[in-house]
Amino acid sequence: MNETLINSYKAFLDNGKTERECVSQTVAIAKACGYVELCDKSELKAGDKVYFINRDKSIALFHIGQDDIENGMNILGAHIDSPRLDLKMKPLYEKEGIVYLNTHYYGGIKKYQWVAMPLAIH
Fold first, then answer.
1. No. of H helices and E strands in the chain?
2. Where are the beta strands (DSSP E) in 2-121?
3. Closest CA to 107 of 22, 29, 28, 30
4. C-alpha to C-alpha distance for 7 and 115, rounded to whole angstroms
């Protein structure tokens, strides 16, 4: 295995705890590889590398090919899965003298798992 690749992937996971953090890191990597933001281009030509960010929570990268689009295209899709607890709009409530936080949970996390995980605020 390529140790440099493994270490850079571990660093990406360590620094990308939320969708927004992952998108920010992906933009930095894309820029280092010659990608530019789509809105900065007036027209696209073969060989261009562009990216588009949607609400700071998702990103699409495009490498414009040589052939006409009528001949087809290659698409590779992935998603950002950030297991986490999100606080609801009015999260605090009290029940039997104990204060609770009302949450949504995402990314496959189960209600009973979060108590065994180190938590951080991002």
1. 2, 5
2. 36-37, 49-54, 58-63, 84-95, 98-106
3. 22
4. 28
Identify the H or E element spanning 54: strand 49-54
SS3 116: helix
Q: How many CB atoms lie within 10 A of CB 26?
A: 19
User: Which pair of structure tokens corresponds to residue 89?
Assistant: 């709009």
pTM of the model: 0.74
Q: Which amino acid is at 22?
A: C
pLDDT at 26 over 70: yes
C-alpha 58/C-alpha 26 separation (Å) is 10
Say how far apart CA 45 and CA 105 lie, in whole Å: 42
Distance of CA 59 to the CA centre of its chain: 7
∠50-60-73 over CA atoms, to 5°? 80
